Amino acid sequence: MGFAYATINRLTGLAAASFTVSTGAGPANDTRLYLNDGQMAAQYTLNSGTTTEAIDIDLGAAQSVSAIAILNHNLAALGSPTVTVTAADNAGFSVGVVTPKATTTLNTTSPKHKDHVLQFGAVSKRYWRIAFTPSLSTSLKIGELFAAASTTQLTRGQIDGSGEGFKVLGVANEMQYGSVRSLFFAGPVRRRRLRFQDWTEAQKNELLTMWSAVNGPFSPLLWIESYEAVSTAAATAQQECIFGRLRDADFEWTFTDFLYRQVPELVITSEGRERGA
Predict the structure, then answer these.
(1) Do 106 and 188 sit in the same domain of this protein?
(2) Domain span at 26
(3) Which pTM was predicted?
(4) For 172-208, how does the pLDDT look when each residue is reduced to its tens digit (9 = 90+)?
(5) Cβ-contact 238, 80 below 8 angstroms
């Protein structure tokens, strides 16, 4: 087990027509573009009351996908929600059908369990289906989908001093006579702080490659916690993830003759979940 990340989302740039509801009540209004707008705050909404809700995706051509992340969702409302990922060569899902991820029960007991990534061996198909069960007691909401072209695992883990928590984004200023004026932007957002030490040059370059792929804080990435190799992951395995950005625009390190003694602290802050009024 360890950490992994993905930077290329196969869904980026797809038109709304690329997303259809194959089963279920369908959206009350057309919010399909919220599934791939690069932001988690605005959510795709499906009506409630059906046995299964399934979202079909047309990538336009066969493309390799190795993980699918479901971000800023309200699947806890389903009680014990399950997700199944299917892929095929035709829109009717009758030709070349495979099931990259068998039915998986999601853990939604923690506030940080609003983001899940389902990992599987790379599969190249044009049509993909994400099915949710059981019957919905409330409208299903999803802030973003991320279909990872590939995932990259880091070969070393964190050291003591790493941590995680939540942060509210906004501004609060104390005014004259003790009153406070505030402006809320988003929150709570998850923050992950990682510290690394005694890395070889090759291991340091793993972090540098990740940082370079997203230009530091200027593009989002999918950070995967407790990464498991596909060959050892059980059908019910699931991973926590963060869809967010690196905090720093610089990447520096200190070193000895043989080891990079202190690789920089990396801070990943998730994208906002709510829009300020």
Answers:
(1) no
(2) 2-153
(3) 0.83
(4) 777 777 777 777 666 677 778 777 777 777 888 888 8
(5) no
